[in-house]
């Protein structure tokens, strides 16, 4: 429906006009006819699907969309036809009603939870400017969220949640700024800066009644980072003030660091961007479910075959009688019923009713219940809970839990997924000189050198509250200490025309000094970091009343008397009326200057003014106990740079609209720069720039930082022509390369002095681009690119983004499990390679293939060459010099060892590889490589890579990421996993599963994935078996019942069998049963391979279940038939014994398939049989029968008094289950699979543990001192003695051992658990 409406909007209006509601008559409601805003939705939300009236019809309508439900409804209706009825009409309805009822209860409970959540939100309150009925005046009134409408003026205080999408009109901040936390919207806990609409003259201060202008803005849409519009103002309403996303406060965000704000609602309720982005957990169809649907088709075919066969045999049986009147036991109603052909046609539908359970009635609803149980235990697994962020595992897609056990490809982002995304400044290069900030302990630096070089920095790092672990470079420190306005003045450098070299060494040194100072100034101000220094308060209470102290009231009264000519005012004015008074009443809080506590000793030493160590929170905040400064950054990179600059003394102190204040050490005071423009970062430019005005020289300075490729490409031409400058660029590039090899994230810094005429021309274009209603972002980007050129290079930074804990171990386990791990990142190649090494994605013994091409032809040549070389390697391995070897060149490879490869592709080459003509070759090459890294990849390319694997290889894929740039691949993959990290919740909102750490993926896949897959595989096969064994019993009886459709079972037991007597044990097993412990699955990851290889549920699984049910049903029926032949027992006694045997066989069969027993399984299994047994006794004693005209009164009681009944049941049970028991024993001894071998290993470990405990106990009794632990030799000997089992289990402690300076011992990576079990006894 959403797409339908979107299409209509294309030919309809492109924008909406919102009129302030207070400009309309007080008695005209916003939703009343004649109101200009009446077509807009209110702020009331309703996420429920049903109401009390619509629940039953709507829920039934949804359930009838399932084919299985429609089929059983058809069977129920068929049973109401007297001529074809097989059971009592009431009894036939019970199973269908039960299934529909269970589903309806589940849907009702979920909808009730949504209703309670909606009610809580709708009844929240805020202050809305409207006519107050008690005093007849217009002021702010306490109003519930559901009663807010588009056009209302709203007043919000600090820490208050925004109730609707609001256009920001007024802020308590003098610069018109407002800070919001968007964690409820996108998960980002850092603050965003929003700006009051500018360009409207209120003549004095903002007052709600003065804002009477119409707002023209976009139609409601889900783009949370886009908003365009304008305000029509002026006498003739022809003037337009442009609006952008910085003027809009979104519903669900929280006001921070601002006393209060006032704004007008433009979107309410379901038209807000937050509600338009809401979506329920995704419904996907798993791979196993598709297999089950295939087997259901087999069941349909089997049903039709059985019905046709039975109908034909009924006609043949009836036709065998020459005299139709002597047909026994079948009193037909009229003579035409004796027609064999007519009888065969009618009885066909009777058999449809009898054999209806060939298609398992409770299969789909039972699978849903099993998956809900699995999801519950996954969500509350404490091993998947991250205490630091207080977040647990979240399953957002409820229908693909078993897919977690069949993953073959993992596509992972790097930053924030493999790494912490908590940046730490580690090194920098300024104008060609590298300044490494060495760690505290460096083996390559002797003590004397460390003392001389890092003594100042060490002193500062220990006491600084800006960057606790940063080691200061003395040279940089001395230069920054002299930073002042005068030193930041631009000086032209003289260049010798003859040689093109710098003419004066002193000038070059001065230029270098200036570059250092510009570099640190850029780090401090080229960002959007917010600085706060005091708490925030609002004088208006929640009812809209302003409370002042007596002194403040007196002062306000005098002020109002002067302003209005009347000092008496019976009513308190709105907060906007006294905004200036409030501002004046508050005492300004001046943060202490850094120089106030800086002391110099011995000519060069100093102590940090910030004495207390700082801590960076997830929100990216830094606190200083002395200066009371808090930094709020939109990205961890910006926070790291600002903290580093502050540690050196160039500290950002304040940011306001059009101003930025910095503490300059050389000035000894704070200096204020005019902030003219901020050119925000975008994924195309990959740069972020600010334009500032020098407070002394009035120079207009453009400062930029961004990706090295995007900054170095826009340098002044002298960096290509002049040798000295070329050398600076080359040195900088070398340093960047070294940073990347260390796994550091790199950013380049540059500066440009703008001429005033050029700036004025550019400013005019920029204002026009900002005011554009169409393609505003694209136009702003083009204008930004026009000014971002001819830069002076300052330098670059290296920022460390550490690997998350457990990442190398997790990737190693996943690769051992047979999963192909790819890393798709936007980082540069060298950084990606280094991270691949440290995360153990690349092995030391692999050969690395780099694909770096400039065009399609070169890419194809590379692919052909590498494919050819790999084919040669299969015949004769290449020497390590052929291509770069990852490990030591001294490493040796066994002649019989298969050579392994790692592939690295850059973004430009990847674009060519994804073309139709080359994708097949690229795919072949990736299949020959064990690891793949795609660097400089765009979000679209990430999604295309995932799609390439899924479409061509038909393998289950998993994509994991933490940012908005990962949404494409997360949504494309079969399973999407979002990491709730530093980059917000966009990835989580698009994902099927949400985790907090990459290492949680290990247990999620290897343990929960394996459990869910094996449980549902066995559960599905058992459900087919359970249904077929019952149907086959009825089928055998038809041979001796004249193919008439009569049954030997009481119909009520037949209907209850699948929904009551035998339904719960397999469901409990599907939720709780464990074939192996979590520890074993993590220790032996090769067991996971059974999932991707489809070993647990194959095409033959259905036919094995069918054959098993066929055999057991034949034994059950014919053994009972032989026992009761020529006896005085009737059909009801025969049927009762068969029913008891049937239920026990199903329950014991389920018990045989159970691996681990806990008390719920025992309890449910026992209770299931007791429910049948007691129910049968009760209804046979006091109830009546639905199978008229017969009545099985007291049958159960009579049957139980016969010893033959118990003997037959026991004999039947043993005979039916004996073959399965024999097959299970043979399977475990002759041909054990991975699971069986691991189970035997677990038992042997338990035996060893018990043996040690017994030995320790004997030693304690004998008075001997028990040893604390066994020696490794003893443990190895014990393991070797136990049938050789542990020698063949892959052990993480004995995996391939490598030595960097010697030979390398290799071992097969597959590590299958084989051999060593031939002599194992059961």
UniProtKB/TrEMBL annotation:
Question: Which keywords annotate this record?
Answer: ATP-binding, Endoplasmic reticulum, Magnesium, Membrane, Metal-binding, Nucleotide-binding, Translocase, Transmembrane, Transmembrane helix
Instruction: State its location(s).
Output: Endoplasmic reticulum membrane; Membrane
Q: Provide the membrane topology annotation.
A: Multi-pass membrane protein
Official protein name in the record: Phospholipid-transporting ATPase
Q: Which InterPro entries match?
A: ATPase_P-typ_cyto_dom_N (IPR023299), ATPase_P-typ_P_site (IPR018303), ATPase_P-typ_TM_dom_sf (IPR023298), ATPase_P-typ_transduc_dom_A_sf (IPR008250), HAD-like_sf (IPR036412), HAD_sf (IPR023214), P-type_ATPase_IV (IPR006539), P-type_ATPase_N (IPR032631)
Which family would the database say this protein is a member of?
Belongs to the cation transport ATPase (P-type) (TC 3.A.3) family. Type IV subfamily.
Q: List residues binding Mg(2+).
A: 413, 415, 962, 966
Region Disordered: start and end of each range? 1-40, 596-616, 870-891, 1253-1322
* Compositionally biased tracts (Basic and acidic residues): 1253-1263
Kindly state which reaction or reactions the protein catalyses: ATP + H2O + phospholipidSide 1 = ADP + phosphate + phospholipidSide 2; a beta-D-glucosyl-(1<->1')-N-acylsphing-4-enine(out) + ATP + H2O = a beta-D-glucosyl-(1<->1')-N-acylsphing-4-enine(in) + ADP + phosphate + H(+)
Boundaries of every P-type ATPase C-terminal domain copy? 988-1232
Source organism of this protein record: Mytilus coruscus
Domain P-type ATPase N-terminal residues, every copy: 36-91
Q: Which NCBIfam families match?
A: ATPase-Plipid, ATPase_P-type
- Key word Hydrolase present: no
Source organism phylogeny: Eukaryota, Metazoa, Spiralia, Lophotrochozoa, Mollusca
| Known EC number | 7.6.2.1
> Predominant location of this chain?
endoplasmic reticulum
Record's superkingdom?
Answer: Eukaryota
UniProt cross-references to SUPFAM superfamilies, sorted A to Z = Calcium ATPase, transduction domain A, Calcium ATPase, transmembrane domain M, HAD-like, Metal cation-transporting ATPase, ATP-binding domain N
UniProt GO MF annotations: ATP binding; ATP hydrolysis activity; flippase activity; magnesium ion binding
* Ligand binding (ATP): 413-415, 638, 681, 705, 745, 825-827, 936, 942, 965-966
């Amino acid at each position: 429906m959403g797409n339908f409406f979107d299409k209509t909007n294309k030919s309809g209006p492109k924008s909406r006009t919102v009129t302030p509601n207070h400009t309309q008559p007080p008695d005209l409601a916003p939703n009343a006819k004649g109101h200009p805003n009446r077509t807009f939705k209110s702020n009331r939300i309703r996420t429920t699907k049903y109401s009390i009236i619509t629940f039953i019809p709507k829920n039934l309508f949804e359930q009838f969309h399932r084919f299985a439900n429609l089929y059983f409804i058809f069977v129920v209706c068929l049973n109401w036809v007297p001529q074809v009825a097989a059971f009592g009409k009431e009894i036939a309805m019970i199973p269908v009603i039960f299934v529909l009822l269970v589903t309806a209860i589940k849907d009702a409970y979920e909808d009730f939870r949504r209703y309670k959540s909606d009610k809580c939100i709708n009844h929240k309150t805020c202050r809305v400017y409207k006519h107050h009925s008690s005093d007849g005046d217009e002021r702010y009134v306490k109003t519930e969220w559901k009663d807010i409408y588009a056009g209302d003026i709203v007043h919000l205080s600090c820490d208050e949640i925004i109730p609707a999408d609001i256009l920001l009109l007024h802020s308590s901040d003098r610069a018109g700024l407002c800070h919001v936390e968007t964690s409820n919207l996108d998960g980002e806990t850092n603050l965003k800066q929003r700006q009051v609409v500018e360009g409207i003259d209120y003549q004095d201060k903002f007052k709600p009644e003065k804002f009477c202008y119409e707002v023209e803005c976009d139609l409601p849409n889900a783009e949370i980072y886009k908003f365009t519009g304008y305000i029509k103002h002026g006498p003739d309403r022809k003037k337009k003030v442009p609006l952008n996303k910085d003027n809009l406060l979104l519903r669900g965000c929280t006001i921070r660091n601002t006393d209060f704000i006032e704004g007008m609602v433009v979107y309410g309720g379901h038209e807000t961007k937050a509600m338009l982005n809401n979506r329920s957990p995704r419904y996907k169809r798993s791979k196993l479910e598709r297999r089950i649907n295939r087997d259901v088709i087999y069941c349909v075919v089997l049903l039709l075959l059985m019905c046709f066969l039975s109908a034909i045999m009924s006609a043949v049986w009836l036709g065998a009688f020459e005299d139709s009147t002597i047909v026994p036991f079948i009193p037909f109603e009229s003579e035409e019923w004796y027609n064999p052909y007519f009888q065969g046609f009618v009885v066909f539908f009777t058999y449809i009713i009898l054999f209806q359970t060939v298609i398992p009635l409770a299969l789909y609803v039972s699978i849903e219940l099993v998956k809900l149980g699995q999801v519950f235990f996954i969500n509350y697994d404490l091993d998947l809970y991250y205490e630091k962020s207080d977040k647990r595992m979240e399953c957002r897609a409820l229908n693909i839990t078993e897919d977690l056990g069949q993953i073959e490809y993992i596509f992972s982002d790097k930053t924030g997924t493999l790494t912490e995304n908590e940046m730490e400044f580690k090194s920098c290069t300024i104008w060609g000189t590298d300044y490494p900030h060495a760690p505290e302990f460096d083996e390559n630096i002797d003590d004397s050198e460390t003392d001389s070089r890092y003594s100042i920095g060490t002193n500062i790092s220990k006491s600084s509250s800006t960057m606790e672990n940063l080691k200061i470079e003395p040279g940089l420190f001395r230069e920054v200490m002299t930073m002042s306005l005068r030193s930041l003045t631009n000086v032209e450098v003289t260049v010798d025309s003859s040689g093109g070299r710098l003419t004066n060494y002193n000038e070059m040194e001065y230029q270098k000094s200036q570059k250092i100072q510009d570099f640190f100034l850029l780090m401090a101000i080229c960002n959007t970091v917010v600085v706060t220094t005091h708490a925030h308060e609002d004088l208006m209470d929640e009812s809209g009343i302003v409370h002042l102290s007596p002194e403040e009231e007196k002062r306000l009264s005098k002020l109002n008397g002067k302003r209005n000519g009347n000092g008496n005012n019976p009513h308190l004015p709105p907060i906007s009326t006294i905004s200036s008074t409030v501002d004046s009443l508050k005492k300004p809080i001046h943060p202490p200057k850094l120089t106030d506590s800086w002391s110099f000793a011995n000519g060069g030493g100093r102590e940090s003014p910030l004495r207390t160590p700082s801590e960076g929170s997830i929100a990216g905040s830094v606190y200083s106990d002395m200066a009371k400064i808090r930094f709020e950054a939109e990205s961890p990179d910006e926070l790291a740079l600002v903290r580093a600059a502050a540690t050196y003394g160039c500290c950002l102190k304040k940011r306001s609209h059009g101003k930025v204040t910095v503490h300059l050490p050389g000035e000894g005071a704070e200096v204020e720069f005019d902030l003219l423009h901020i050119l925000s970062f975008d994924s195309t430019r990959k740069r972020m720039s600010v334009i500032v005005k020098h407070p002394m020289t009035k120079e207009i300075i453009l400062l930029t930082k961004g990706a090295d490729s995007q900054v170095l490409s826009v340098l002044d031409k002298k960096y290509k022509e002049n040798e000295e400058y070329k050398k600076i660029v080359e040195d900088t590039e070398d340093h960047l390369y070294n940073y990347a090899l260390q796994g550091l994230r790199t950013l380049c810094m540059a500066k440009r002095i703008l001429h005033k005429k050029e700036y004025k021309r550019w400013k005019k274009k920029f204002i026009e681009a900002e005011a554009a209603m169409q393609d505003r972002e694209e136009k702003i980007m083009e204008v930004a690119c026009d000014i971002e050129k001819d830069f002076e290079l300052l330098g670059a930074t290296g920022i460390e983004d550490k690997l998350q804990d457990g990442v190398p171990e997790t990737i190693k386990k996943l690769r051992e499990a047979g999963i192909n791990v790819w890393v798709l990142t936007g980082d540069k190649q060298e950084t990606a390679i280094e991270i691949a090494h440290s995360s153990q994605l690349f092995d030391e013994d692999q050969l690395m293939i780099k694909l770096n091409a400039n065009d399609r032809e070169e890419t194809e040549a590379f692919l052909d060459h590498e494919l050819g070389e790999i084919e040669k390697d299969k015949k004769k391995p290449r020497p390590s010099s052929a291509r770069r070897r990852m490990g030591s060149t001294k490493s040796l490879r066994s002649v019989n060892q298969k050579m392994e490869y790692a592939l690295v592709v850059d973004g430009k080459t990847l674009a060519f590889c994804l073309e139709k003509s080359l994708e097949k070759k690229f795919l072949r090459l990736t299949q020959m490589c064990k690891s793949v890294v795609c660097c400089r990849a765009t979000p679209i390319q990430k999604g295309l890579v995932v799609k390439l694997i899924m479409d061509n290889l038909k393998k289950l894929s998993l994509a994991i990421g933490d940012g908005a740039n990962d949404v494409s691949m997360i949504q494309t993959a079969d399973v999407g996993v979002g990491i709730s990290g530093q980059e917000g919740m966009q990835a989580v909102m698009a994902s099927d599963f949400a985790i907090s750490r990459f290492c949680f993926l290990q247990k999620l896949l290897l343990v929960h994935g394996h459990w869910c897959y094996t449980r549902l595989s066995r559960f599905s096969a058992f459900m087919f078996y359970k249904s077929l064994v019952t149907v086959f019993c009825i089928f055998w009886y038809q041979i001796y019942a004249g193919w008439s459709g009569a049954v030997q079972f009481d119909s009520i037991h037949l209907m209850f069998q699948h929904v009551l007597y035998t339904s719960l044990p397999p469901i409990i097993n599907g939720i709780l049963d464990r074939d192996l412990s979590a520890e074993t699955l993590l220790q032996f990851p090769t067991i996971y391979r059974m999932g991707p290889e489809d070993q647990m549920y194959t095409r033959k699984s259905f036919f094995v279940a069918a054959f098993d049910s066929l055999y057991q049903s034949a034994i059950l029926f014919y053994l009972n038939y032989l026992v009761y032949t020529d006896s005085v027992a009737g059909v009801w006694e025969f049927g009762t014994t068969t029913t008891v045997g049937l239920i026990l066989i199903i329950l014991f069969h389920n018990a045989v398939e159970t691996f681990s027993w806990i008390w719920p399984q025992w309890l449910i299994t026992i209770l299931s049989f007791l429910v049948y047994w007691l129910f049968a006794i009760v209804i046979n004693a006091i109830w009546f029968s639905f199978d008229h005209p017969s009545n099985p009164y007291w049958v159960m009681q009579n049957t139980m008094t016969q010893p033959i009944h118990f003997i037959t049941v026991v004999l039947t049970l043993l005979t039916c289950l004996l073959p399965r028991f024999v097959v299970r024993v043979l399977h475990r001894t002759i041909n054990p699979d991975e699971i069986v071998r691991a189970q035997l290993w677990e038992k042997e470990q338990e035996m060893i543990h018990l043996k040690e405990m017994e030995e320790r106990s004997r030693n304690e009794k004998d008075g001997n001192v028990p040893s604390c632990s066994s020696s490794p030799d003893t443990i190895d000997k014990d393991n070797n003695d136990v049938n050789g089992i542990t020698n063949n289990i892959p052990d993480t402690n004995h995996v391939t051992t490598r030595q960097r300076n010697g030979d390398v011992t290799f071992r097969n990576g597959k590590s299958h658990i084989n051999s060593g079990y031939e002599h194992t006894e059961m």
